[in-house]
Every structure is written in C-alpha cells, then in structure tokens.
Amino acid sequence: MDSRGSAFVASGIILTIVAAIIVTCWLRYRPPAPVVAIIPETTAQELWESEHAGVAATIAGTPWGTYWNGPSSEDQVAQQIALVQHTESIHAAGLILAPDNCLALTTPVRHVLDKGIPTVIVSTGLPIDPRRNLGFVLNDDKAAGELAATYVARLLKDHGTVALLGDTSNVLSSTARAESFAQTLKSRFPGILLVARPQGSFRLGETEQQTETVLRANPKLSAIVSIGITQTRGTMFALRSFGRQNNVALIAFDQDLDLMYSLRHGDIDAVVAQDTFSMGKQAMRMIERFQRNSVTPSLIRVAPVLVTRDNIDDPGIQQVLSMDWRPRQP
After folding, report:
1. At a CB cut-off of 8 Å and minimum separation 6, what does 186 contact?
2. Is the confidence at residue 109, as pLDDT, over 70?
3. Cβ-based neighbours of 91, under 8 Å, separated by 6 or more
4. Of 73, 200, 276, 292, which residue has the fewest beta carbons closer than 10 angstroms?
C-alpha cells in the first residue's frame, strides 16, 4: 500500500474513533427524558386510573415518562405531602396533583412551584391564585350538583325527602358539589326537602354509622345523595343492614369499579361521574405548554356526566369510565 492509501486508512480509523467517543459521550451525558409526576387522591380507587390513562394517551410517542404514586387512602394526607415533596428528588419536569386536603397541600405545592416545577391541580382546587407554571383542570362541581338534583327530582316526581352525605370541608370540590345540589333543590324543586347534611368522613366505618343515624332519624326518607366513593360504599352497607335498599334511592358522586357493578345491579340509581380521563389529557397538555413557556389558560372546568343503567354502555360513557391506564389514542 502506498503512502496515500496508508494515510486514507489512518484517517478512517481516526474518524471512527472520534465518532465512537462522541456517541459514547452523548449516551453518557445526554439529558434524561422528562418525567411528569402524577399524584392522585389515592391509588386505592380506580377513578384515578382514568386520569392516568388520559396522561398516557397524551404522551404516547413522546420522550415523556411518568412517575405514578399516591396515598393508600384519601385520609393519608401526610403521605401525599411526602410524595409532592419527592417530585423535587426525582427531578420531575411537571406535577399533576389531585389534592386530598385543600389547606395541607397548599404549602407543599407552593414549594414545588418555587423550585420551578410546572404544576397542574386536577379535580378539586386549592386556595392558591393562578400564577406562572400553575394551572387548574377541575371538575365542574356546580354542574355536578345540578345533575344530581335534577335526577333526584325526576326520580321522586318533585316530592319527597333527601339526605346529602359526604360533604367534606377540607376538599373544596366536595363542598361545592354539596352547595350546588342544595341550592338547586331549593330554587328549582321546592317540593323536595333536604332533611340531613352531616359532615362527611373518609373512613368506611364512620360513613356506614353516619348513614344508619340518618336512616333512624328519617324513617320515611326517599333518597340519599352521597359525595365520594367511600361514602357511597358505607351508605350501601347501611341500607342493606336496614333492609332499605329497595325503598331509598341512592345517587352517588364519583365512579369506581365496584360502584359500577352496583349500578348495573340496582343498588345505586345513578352516578355523577368525573371525566378524569379528559382531566389527565388537559393537564398533560398544560404541562407541555408550561415547558414551552406558551401562554395557556389557567383554569379549565371539565363537565361531569350522569351515568345510569340506561346509558352505562354508551361509547361516550364507557370512555369516561374506562380504568385502563395503558395508552389510548387521544
């Protein structure tokens, strides 16, 4: 081989070595894929798997990854606070949070925002004014209360008594739904009397006992409206133990797998469902816009849907109720 050929081969070897070094360095030092932390009210309810699915559908085919974790029940507020604080440790590029307590979660969320992590609050609000990198994708609680009141009025033919259970003051959406329900009855359906509205609880035994107290005090009760999944389960247990499941109508807020089964089999008359799938999609899109420094709406309200035995198998209702977190097409 002449000197020019040798030089050509040597140049090729050098270029190959340089390229290998560049690729190795890129692989070693390339920026990690962005991760969005999704923290639901609790991982013990399938309601939040729909939110998970909405996020997964939105980021399918993108570099985004997810960190999904939540407290074991709604009353584990300290656990949820710790998970919010953990987003800084995992270098999250965004946080999507459904808070369990409107006051207790305010300071941790402010801290995350101060660290520059874009945050979207879903389902129920926090007492924080919208600001840069903070958005809200909330259930339309006013519409939810109106749906429940209108259905109760139709079911009872505008006359009867109803108890409202599960109004929990530390969850803003709970109080907003309860107030909307009560005001709608008062203004539009005066023939239906709201005879009980005790403070709610996240503990199953307490919700069952609370329902039993209401049933004893109101032997001719026509209907119960329950806010929240745990409240509905406790209410069903109490109605069965009193043998009242066939003469007291039950209208529930929020969906879960066992509650949908109970709806199909007549233990629940209707469920006002949150569209957490759409909330997940909207929240993730907002996080992406925050990352691009794009102007984005600070507050979006997502309409709830009324689910009955007549419409539960409709395609639109099934999409809202789906609890499969694996990616679906947007």
Report:
1. 194
2. yes
3. 32, 35
4. 292
Bridge-based pairing of strands 192-196 and 223-227 is unpaired
Instruction: Kindly report the length of the chain.
Output: 330
Amino acid (one-letter) located at 210:
Q
What gap in Å lies between CA 16 and CA 24, rounded to an integer?
Answer: 12
Mean pLDDT of 171-195: 96
Specify the amino acid at residue 145.
G
Inter-residue contact 125 to 157 (CB < 8 Å): no
Residue found by looking up tokens 């040798």 in the block: 6
The residue type at 175: T
User: In terms of Cα–Cα distance, which of 142, 107, 113, 145 is closest to 126?
Assistant: 107
Strand residues in 266-314 grouped as ranges (E) = 270-273, 299-302, 305-307
Contact (CB, 8 A) for 149 and 188 = yes
pLDDT per residue over 246-275, tens digit each?
Answer: 899 999 999 999 999 999 999 999 999 999
Q: Name the one residue in this structure whose structure tokens are 């939810």.
A: 144
DSSP string covering 202-248, please?
S-HHHHHHHHHHHHHH-TT--EEEEESHHHHHHHHHHHHHHT-TTTS
Which DSSP helix (H) or strand (E) runs through 136?
Answer: strand 134-139
CB contact at 8 A, 306 and 115: no
Neighbours of 158 (CB within 10 A): 13
